[in-house]
Amino acid sequence: MCGVRSRASIGAGPESRNKRGPIRPNDRSASDPTWPQDACVNGSGSASPASATPVVLAGFAAGVALLQTRATLPAATGAWLLFAIALAIAAVAWRRHALDRAATGAAVATQAVATPRGSLILCALVAAIGGFAYAAWRADLRLADALPEAWEGADVVIVGVVDDLPDLSDRGARFAFAVERVEPQEARVPRRVSLSWSAERAEDDAEAEAPVVHAGERWRFTVRLKRPHGYANPGGFDLEAWLFERNLRATGYVHVRGGEGATRIDAFAGRPLDVVQRARERVRERIAAALAGETYAGVVAALAIGDQRAIPDAQWTVFNRTGIGHLVSISGLHVTALAALAAWVVAIAARRSVRITDALPARSVGAIAGVVAAGVYTLLAGAEVPAQRTFAMLAAGAAGLVLARQSHAPILWLWALAAVLAFDPWAVLAPGCWLSFGAVAVLILAVSGRVAGSRGPTRASRVAATIGEGARTQWAVTVGLVPFTLVLFGQVSLVSPIANAVAIPLVTLAVAPLAVAGIVVPGDACFVAAHLLLAPLMRWLTWLAEAPVAAWVQHTPLAWTIAAAALGVAWLLAPRGVPGRPLGAVWLLPLFVVMPEPPPEGSARIAVLDVGQGLAVVVRTHAHALVYDTGPRWHATADAGLRIVAPYLRHEGIGRLDRLVISHQDLDHAGGAASLLRLTPVDRVVSSLPRDHPALADAGGVPSQRCERGMHWERDGVKFAVLHPTPALYDDPRTRTNDLSCVVLVDAGGTRVLLAGDIESRSEARLLRELRDLLAAHVLVVPHHGSRTSSTVPFVAAVDPAIAIFTPGYRNRFGHPRADVVARYVARGAATLRTDLDGAIVFDAGPAGIENLARTRHTWARYWRDRPDMSAGSSN
Fold first, then answer.
1. What residues have CB less than 8 Å from 89, skipping those under 6 apart?
2. pLDDT by residue (tens digit) across 11-25?
3. CA distance 528 to 288
4. d(CA 492, CA 17)
5. Distance in angstroms (rounded) separating the CA atoms of residues 670 and 217
6. What is each CA distance from 697 to 134, 691, 702, in whole angstroms?
């Protein structure tokens, strides 16, 4: 950390310096020849041009991040033992280096001495091992706080406190719950769990009033819990990582029957953080009341207290396509602006007090006030990673100012990164961490090695210079974050520079300050004014987002293209004088042009996705793709088409569907169809849905036809044939919806895959009578998730699959797949796979048979990911 001590009187005029008397010893001037002008602080107070501090901080952060990529945790004692050995080696090496310097007379008290390169490498290695061991220790403690499988689904009484801002809706409430006591005493329950409490349906079939809970309340609940278990799909959201990072070690629901099972004990528990959460909730309630019915009330709440749950998906789409999502969260820009305002106001007030400035310079007083304001705002904002990062950097900078040690921005950045990861080692799992620290790193790179130019003597020239600097900064951030946004979101906003040029000043200087001011200013005027300014901005952004060229959407980049792009960004943003800077753009091209390798002609890549209790299958040939079923619909704003199928297609670089086959109208198969049709171009829909089904009505003119036996087509050497239902079944009123399921046979070079939907025994018998010779298949997606109403013994024998894939939901209430059904396939020698245990199952089918079989829960294993008992039916 290079720099010099500043005058104590900086920020005060000559008159105030005269009043305070002579300059004190700790107020040395920058011109004092006895004070080292070019010294660097190595973190312990000694001067050294090659400081060990940056490599230690970077090594620690790298070690913490490396731990989060591991499938299993190392033994805690082994990790710490390795760290102790490395630390001992480093101490011996450092001591030997010090003795060598003393022996050769190289160490001079008044001369800064560079740290040897070998010692720096050793410091980085020791710090990395230390970070790895520290993160492993923290992870081991968190994993130990687990729900035993024996207590999954059992009725347990827990007493505790609502530990976060609850998410309330017409459907009920979801909230974090800190457990204080458990009944029965022998039950083992994690200390912090995520609970949902649904609205009960009254006896007269009318909707009961949704339950209401408040942050800081103490309750006694009867609950049913399960271990954290999310959907595991390539390119999908990792719910288990999200829960683990937030220390929610079980999920479940409040089990209320006849009004019993939930009792409020205390209206306010009174823990320190309860005060913060209750304050956040009061502000949210004020905003909801002030902006009742307003379209963008959720955005105002997000800007004021960091609560983004009231922002609908449609608005998030606008933010992502215009590249202004960082403004909606409590970003570093907002925290910095508030801290700067507080520092400026307090510094002005401090200059008027001789007593204060005698103790501490006014600028230092202002810096401390700014850090305090940033800390309070960070707490009110929910302490998300961007706010944590900004607070840590501000605190480090203020400490340097108070101690009269000016710090370089890269050092502050490293201190902030290390501090955030020491507090929360799992912050690297959050996209906000990469975007927040990445954006600041890009800005540091963009301004390093550059000399500020003159702004000119006139106001017009100064305005022009400011606009030019802003444009260069926006260009740097836009280009620099391209690799991050493609990896995290699969898209890059092309209109981001235009959108941010308008949105940043308006939100940062007007909307956000008004939203924050509304927290302390009585009445609703500030919130109303913030919404009035926000509404026209959002209308303009919506118009901008609807442009066909608003965003570039593509596949998830390959690992080596990301590394190449990082080098390209560094080259592009290098200072003038670095040769060939425009060539850096060439290194970004692989991000966009290197696609995942498609299957060859005559082969198909088949992905049976993990959608819970339901079905969604993607069949990809060399140049075409088909989706068979779209998974369930969970509620009005969320379904598997939106949350699972579309992200998988984007991850694989599939931008268009040749066919969308919807087997039948049950919500666990057709629930995501409308969302998928809205998000992905489809050439043709084939289904057994009624003609007035909402999915077909909302298809936007996509040609559709009824699924009937005899239909067949070929794509890239792969044959598709519909085996069921027959036309007569549509006219028979006794036909159940399950028995209208489209049964599709995929033949890739002689390797056959049968997609059986939810057909039951009646349809299986019909197929056996009429098409027995066509049923044999190498892979069968088992009908009806392994229900007893399907998979009859003759049908299983006729298909005789080498691999049987079951698609049940984890711990589903139907008991699928039934043990006796699984046994029938095992008796035929089939390997049984299950999406609830294995995650998405992906394989290639072609002339060589079944190849490259991958089970996502194994291929992308992480130490926090749930590993259910595989003996329940998954085997090879």
1. 122, 126
2. 333 333 343 344 333
3. 11
4. 54
5. 40
6. 56, 8, 10
pLDDT tens string 643-661: 999 999 999 999 899 999 9
**Cα(665)–Cα(688) distance, integer angstroms:** 7
Burial of 834 (0-12, 13-18, 19+ CB in 10 A): buried
Q: Is 37 exposed, middle or buried (0-12, 13-18, 19+ CB in 10 A)?
A: exposed
Query: Dihedrals φ, ψ of 678, to 5°?
Result: -75, -30
SS3 555: coil
Burial state string for 638-667 with b = 16 or more CB within 10 A and e = fewer than 16: ebbbbbbbbbbbbbbbbeebbbbbbbbbbe
* 250-302 tens-digit pLDDT: 999 998 876 678 899 999 998 888 898 898 899 999 999 999 989 999 999 98
Q: How far apart are CA 557 and CA 596, in angstroms?
A: 8
User: Edge to edge, what strands does the sheet with 803-806 contain?
Assistant: 712-715, 718-724, 743-748, 751-755, 779-781, 803-806, 831-834
Instruction: Compute the distance between CA of residue 18 and CA of residue 8 in angstroms, rounded to an integer.
Output: 13
Residues 194/174, Cβ–Cβ less than 8 Å: yes
- Please answer whether residues 103 and 95 qualify as being in contact, where contact means their C-beta atoms are separated by less than 8 angstroms: no
Locate 630 and state its tokens: 């779209």
What's the pTM? 0.84
DSSP assigned state of 809: P
DSSP classification of residue 509: I
Order of strands, sheet of 617-620, starting from the edge strand that comes earlier in the sequence: 704-706, 685-687, 659-662, 625-628, 617-620, 604-608, 841-846, 849-855
Count of CB atoms within 10 A of residue 267's CB? Answer: 10
140 neighbors 78 (Cβ within 8 angstroms): no
Cα 832 to Cα 71: distance, rounded to the nearest angstrom: 24
User: Omega into 725 within 30° of 0, i.e. cis?
Assistant: yes
- Computed from CA positions of residues 247, 249, 253, 259, in that sequence, does the dihedral angle turn out positive or negative? negative
